[in-house]
Amino acid sequence: MSARRLKMPLLPMEASTVDEIPVGGEWQYEPKWDGFRCIAFRHGSKIVLQSKSGKPLTRYFPEVAAELAKLKAKEFVLDGEIVIAVGKHLSFDDLLMRIHPAASRVRKLSEETPATYIVFDLLEDGSGPLVAQALEARRKRLEAFAKREFKRPERIELSPATRDIKTAKKWFKSAGKALDGIIAKRADVEYRSDDRSGMQKIKKQRTVDCVVGGFRYGTNSKIVGSLLLGLYDEDGLLNHVGFTSGIARSEKAALTKKLQKLIEPPGFTGKAPGGPSRWSTDRSTKWEPLAPKLVVEVEYDHFTGGRFRHGTKLLRWRPDKAPRQCKMEQVSQAGARASY
């Protein structure tokens, strides 16, 4: 059976962004949690946590690994979300603080603000991989697994799921505290690694993860003024799609130093920031290209013609996501803002 085991890196099934909750008997609905996507592997005594980008997360969340070690099952692969609750809200900032090089710092934070692992899929159990099975079958196996295993751990939870659209809309209305929105999954579809065709996400806040392909300095300044955003197309080219300038003043000096270390042409391999026009100034056509290393999540209003129609709002950095996962298909289906 060892040859059949799922191994790292196993890229998770992803969701495309849509504006309305899809309706139909083929859909299963789940809350969208505001955390770090995590695939958890256990083979015997070894437990490994993997990020969405395929990188190890175990050292940053030792308490989650310890909770998984309490499960009686010795062979499994779970898909879920690592979250940190502060009061009635989930704190993404506390998650970001965990990505720290000092083990002593991580250990201290794991004791002060312990994380919870919310599980929503079972990809492998003692019988072998389940990824070829439809979600409906995997969910039944997961619920049985959770009923049997999720008794002793304090911070391993089963994410709720429903086929009832009314319940899904109630969850959506409550988004903004513990929830980040709604995930709709085709119940008749197998687990499609690194694919968005069987899942959709609906959020009150329209966001997208972008690669920072370059930056501009502020007016008459050597401090960063704005970040130039990029998304990969089907040909693997990084296209310039807009900018964001909402960088906190207190963070600009340190960020400038970080960006300057990453200056490397060409920055964008597809469409690049435009050249001079009758609206541009000499300063606005100058920009510094960056190696595609950094990912940010931004909020936007409209995306048409291959770019954001207005400036975006910088929400947070996403060290848990790989630049190559920032694809144009994230926004290809998005139109008007969802409202219920």
Low-confidence stretches: 275-283, 334-340
Mean pLDDT: 90
Q: Considering the protein shown, what is the CATH homologous superfamily of the largest domain?
A: DNA ligase/mRNA capping enzyme
Rg from Cα: 21 Å
Number-wise, the strands total: 20
Q: Give the helix/strand class.
A: alpha+beta
- CATH level 1 class label of the largest domain: Alpha Beta
Helicity, as a percent range: 10-25%
Give the amount of beta strand, in percent. Answer: 25-35%
Q: How many structural domains does the protein architecture include?
A: 2
Shape: globular
Largest sheet: 6 strands, mixed
Q: What is the CATH architecture assignment of the largest domain?
A: 2-Layer Sandwich
**What's the CATH topology name of the largest domain?**
D-amino Acid Aminotransferase, Chain A, domain 1
Instruction: Measure the end-to-end span.
Output: 48 Å
The run of helices and strands is EEEEHEEEHHEEHEHEEEEEHEEEEE
> Please, how many helices?
6
Describe this structure in words.
There is one protein chain. With 340 residues, the chain is an alpha+beta fold. The chain has 2 domains: 2-202, D-amino Acid Aminotransferase, Chain A, domain 1 (2-Layer Sandwich); 207-330, OB fold (Dihydrolipoamide Acetyltransferase, E2P) (Beta Barrel), CATH 2.40.50. It is 18% helix and 31% strand. It contains 6 helices and 20 strands. It has helices at 62-69, 92-98, 103-112, 135-149, 165-173, 249-260, and strands spanning 16-17, 27-33, 36-43, 46-51, 75-83, 85-86, 89-90, 116-125, 128-129, 156-158, 179-186, 199-202, 207-217, 224-232, 238-244, 288-289, 295-299, 303-304, 307-308, 313-317. The strands form 5 sheets. Strands 3, 4, 5, 8, 9 and 10 form a 6-stranded mixed sheet that branches. Strands 13, 14, 15, 16, 17 and 20 form a 6-stranded antiparallel sheet that branches. The protein has a 4-stranded mixed sheet with strand order 1-12-11-2, covered by helices on one side. A hairpin with a 2-residue loop joins strand 6 and strand 7 (89-90). The protein is globular and about 65 Å long.
